[in-house]
Amino acid sequence: MDERVNIVVDAFKTTIENVNIFAVVIVLLIFALIGFFLVFWEKFEEFVSKRYLKKLFFRNGESYGLTKKELEILWKYSQKLHKDPFLVIEYKAPFEKVIQAYIEENKNYDEKMIRNMRKKLGFDKIPPFMPLISTKDIDLFQTGTLIFENRVFPVSLYDKDEEYMYWYLIDQMPPFPFKKGDTVRIRFTREDDAVYIVEGKIEDLFSEDGKYIIKIPHTFKFLQIQRRRDFRLKVNLPLQLFITDKEGKQVKIEVETTDISIDGVCFCIPVKDAKDLKMSIGTEVFMKIQFEDKEIETKAIIKNIREVGKNICYGAEFKDMSNEYKNYLIKFVQSEQQKILKTYKRLKYIE
Question: Are 225 and 256 in contact (CB under 8 A)?
């Protein structure tokens, strides 16, 4: 047994001694070169792909009228934020995030250039029914209330730039309970969208042309309180109302809708005609709404009343509408909504 083991050991030693060290080195070098080549090829492919994508991105961007300088900025900061540059020129939300990163790194940024970029891409305005992306989207002269330590002050957006918003304290005079460095909240309502509450630190409080202005930084963070369950479509459709007047007689009023949703409708009646009608909150009315290819008949309950100029405007919620009419109305509103959204599709909120 020991003799056999010795024979195996001797054979192994002989094999090792006869192995060509040079050959081993060559084999190891080949494997190393293969590994290096694979890594290099991967990086090369990534480099070529990135160059191709950048070239394609510039081609797409130039079709919107963007300059090479503008496209370089968007490309550079898209890469820094790990955002798809193609989405940055297609959708407003990622565009604003990229621009914000550019502004934060470049205090001498060209504000006029940024505004021109928004205009070229169609991001300079946001429709009233779409949610805000940042406080930069608040319309000038938007009114609201400033809240500080349970006290409220009427305000209006006086001006804005790429970094700050400037709120005018309407008919307010010092002394004020707040000062530079204090945190305040501003609450405002977008009629077709939501109630917003923005919180920010006062960077400055100054007087301009007899007006007192507070300066607050822009933000992407705010509280949004949705006002409506369903999309409200502004449309004028012939509307017949069958109402009881103050003498108890049934009368027919012909007006037009001001807007309509799946749940209800708004309409206005001249003050001179409305004063003779027996209509208050909770009143039930019967109505006929004329569409292009169909007439809908339904009951509705008056939910709100407000005076607008020379008209009294009523908001009514549908009651006991048949499934046939409800399905038709849903399809109508959704179809019209899609038409509007196609116009503003590039404002869609995408993160």
Answer: no
DSSP 177: S
The reported pTM is 0.63
DSSP string, 275-288: TTB---TT-EEEEE
Q: What is the pLDDT along the chain (351 residues), one digit of tens a residue?
A: 556 545 544 554 555 554 556 666 776 777 777 766 666 555 544 555 668 889 999 999 999 999 999 999 999 999 999 999 999 998 888 999 999 999 999 989 999 999 999 999 988 888 777 789 899 999 999 999 999 999 999 999 999 999 999 999 999 999 999 999 999 999 999 977 889 999 999 999 999 999 999 999 999 999 988 766 667 788 899 999 998 888 888 899 999 999 998 889 999 999 988 888 888 999 999 999 999 999 999 999 999 998 888 899 999 999 999 999 999 998 898 888 777 766 655 554 444
Report d(CA 194, CA 226) in Å as an integer.
5
Task: Tell which residue, 224, 314, 307, has the closest CA to residue 260.
Answer: 314
In CATH, what number does 135-226 get? 2.40.10.220
Query: How far is the C-alpha of 290 from the C-alpha of 337, rounded, in Å?
Result: 19
CATH of domain 238-342: 2.40.10.220
Residues of the chain with CATH 2.40.10.220: 135-226, 238-342
- Helices in the chain by DSSP H: which ranges? 2-18, 21-62, 68-80, 85-88, 92-105, 111-121, 271-274, 323-343
